[in-house]
Design a protein that fits this description.
By secondary structure, the protein is an all-alpha fold. It contains 13 helices and no strands. The protein has one domain. It is globular, with a radius of gyration of 19 Å.
Length: 300
């Protein structure tokens, strides 16, 4: 049981690390003026090819029952479709991996409400306390310079649309994870995701798109996003939702800005102030507290 707990926590933390760097890799593509719909379409396509090959050769793909097809379509509508439109356009407007990731890290607050209200997940006062004390940390990072540029508000709204889409995605995943393994869910998620974004790519980007633009500086972050942030991270996170539940698994996403902030600082993209460091430490403390519980985790 202890070893199972360790595996679950390592899985969700690894997913969070990948997602933390996703903001940096996405931002690098946007700074190179790579079109948004092209970015998401190629990320989904590369991920679909990779995860389909892995799942097929591992014998992990399961047949989707007719009654569940609508849930898979809803799953993909929420994430990647709505989520990535909100996240990518929002990040393009705010132009800050740290600010983008810190807004996305509010997902646990809304996941807490959804998990307890709709799925009747057992949430203790200490879980609630841990999640809520991350708010001061989030605010310290967001208001690192004392204010947010007014021009960022549209981007912030788009990022919160991504937050709500992610919570809805977690609820659908919770339903499907009881029937299908994570490989099946992630495989269909990215195949359908590529198909969802294909019309957007053809309508908005294709006429001006040139395959000569797929230079090594573009291909590398696209592959990083496809392999680590889409394929591996989603498999690990779906397994974590199954074991921890929506609220507690999503609590770990508050660590995304920690990874983004330190990654952006290490790569010279952003500065690391004392206020930001204090905010990050508060967020980490909140995550640790939110994981406390009296009973053991029902790992299957």
């Amino acid at each position: 049981m202890v070893n199972s707990k360790v595996v679950v926590y390592i899985s969700v933390i690894t997913a969070v690390i990948f997602w933390g760097f996703s903001f940096i890799w996405t931002n690098s593509l946007l700074l190179q003026n790579f079109p948004v719909y092209s970015l998401v379409f190629f990320r989904m396509t590369f991920a679909a090819i990779i995860i389909t090959a892995i799942s097929y050769f591992a014998g992990k793909i399961e047949k989707v029952e007719k009654r569940d097809r609508k849930w898979f379509l809803l799953l993909v509508l929420l994430e990647p479709f709505i989520y990535f439109i909100g996240e990518t356009f929002g990040l393009k407007i705010v132009n800050s991996p740290t600010l983008g990731s810190i807004i996305i890290s509010t997902i646990p607050i809304f996941a807490l409400i959804a998990g307890s209200s709709f799925l009747k997940e057992r949430i203790t006062p200490i879980n609630v306390f841990g999640i809520l004390i991350t708010l001061p940390g989030i605010l310290l990072v967001v208001f690192d310079k004392g204010e947010i540029d007014v021009s960022h508000y549209a981007g912030i709204i788009l990022l919160f649309i991504a937050v709500f889409a992610a919570v809805g995605y977690s609820m659908v995943v919770k339903k499907l994870a009881g029937t299908y393994n994570s490989y099946t869910i992630v495989t269909y998620q990215h195949i359908l995701g590529a198909l969802y974004f294909l019309p957007m790519f053809l309508i908005y980007d294709y006429k001006e798109f040139s395959f000569n633009s797929l230079t090594i500086d573009i291909i590398k972050p696209l592959l990083y996003l496809a392999v680590f942030c889409s394929s591996l991270a989603f498999i690990l996170f779906i397994n974590s939702i199954k074991a921890l539940g929506i609220a507690r698994a999503n609590t770990f996403t508050t660590l995304v800005p920690v990874v983004s902030a330190f990654g952006a600082y290490a790569m010279g993209h952003e500065m690391m102030s004392m206020r930001k460091i204090i905010g990050i430490l508060i967020v980490v403390a909140g995550v640790i507290i939110a994981q406390r519980q009296k009973s053991s985790i029902p790992v299957k």
